[in-house]
Design a protein that fits this description.
The complex is a heterodimer of chains A (about 110) and B (about 110). In chain A, about 0% of the residues lie in helices and about 60% in strands. Chain A has about 110 residues and is mainly beta. Classes of the chains: A mainly beta (about 110), B mainly beta (about 110).
Chain lengths: ~110, ~110
């Protein structure tokens, strides 16, 4: 069994401020972890993923995430928020054959 | 490269009507799936397929039917629409063999059942 918990359904940051979106997971097997972004009225697109190897993963648009096994976390960060980062972000985990479990999403608002 | 294509993008149905959401991918992916997205609930898996002729139920399969006659197509059928099926539906695909493979999503289909 696997699950994902995203803390905070809405997060607001000022333009230029640090973005931190939290994700905790549970998995009975070594997990693969993903962050997807959804812009209004669009599908989801991959930001970054952790499969094996380096625990700090860099993705598109300046985002990165760190896999911390001891904390069962995979938080998403970006040093400086941009207006174009406003979107909904989904954390996801798969520990089995293509069965992906998504979190409930976090809407990021960027304040000018 | 079109990726994952869903049609229609918007649809309004009356309770009890049936319809099919079409999904096609041109990436030769074995794995295809349908999700529904509802506010505050993330994406929930409806049905999935690991290859032509093979389908299985996801988390919320009731009221939906699927088939996979070709690698490219994976239609989702609503047999008798209910207001509870008002949602945004996403088709997705990925290659198999590695659970870390990226899932590619379609643009979504907005369905309203009145």
């Amino acid at each position: 069994a696997q699950s994902v918990t995203q803390l905070g359904s809405h997060v607001s940051v000022s333009e230029g401020a640090l973005v931190l979106l939290r994700c905790n997971y549970s998995s009975s097997v070594p997990p693969y972890l993903f962050w997807y972004v959804q812009y209004p009225n669009q599908g989801l697109q991959l930001l970054l993923k952790y499969t094996t190897g380096a625990t700090l993963v860099k993705g598109i648009n300046g985002f990165e995430a760190e896999f911390k096994k001891s904390e069962t976390s995979f938080h998403l960060t970006k040093p400086s928020a941009h207006m174009s980062d406003a979107a909904e972000y989904f954390c996801a985990v798969t520990g089995g054959y293509q069965k992906v479990t998504f979190g409930t999403g976090t809407k990021l608002q960027v304040i000018p | 490269n079109a990726g994952v294509t869903q049609t229609p993008k918007f649809q309004v149905l009356k309770t009890g009507q049936s319809m099919t959401l079409q999904c096609a991918q041109d990436m030769n992916h074995e794995y295809m799936s349908w999700y529904r997205q509802d506010p505050g609930m993330g994406l929930r898996l409806i049905h999935y397929s690991v290859g032509a002729g093979i389908t299985d139920q996801g988390e919320v399969p009731n009221g939906y039917n699927v088939s996979r006659s070709t690698t490219e197509d994976f239609p989702l059928r609503l047999l008798s629409a209910a207001p509870s099926q008002t949602s945004v539906y996403f088709c997705a695909s990925s290659s198999t063999g590695n659970s870390g493979n990226t899932i590619y999503f379609g643009e979504g289909s907005w369905l309203t059942v009145v």
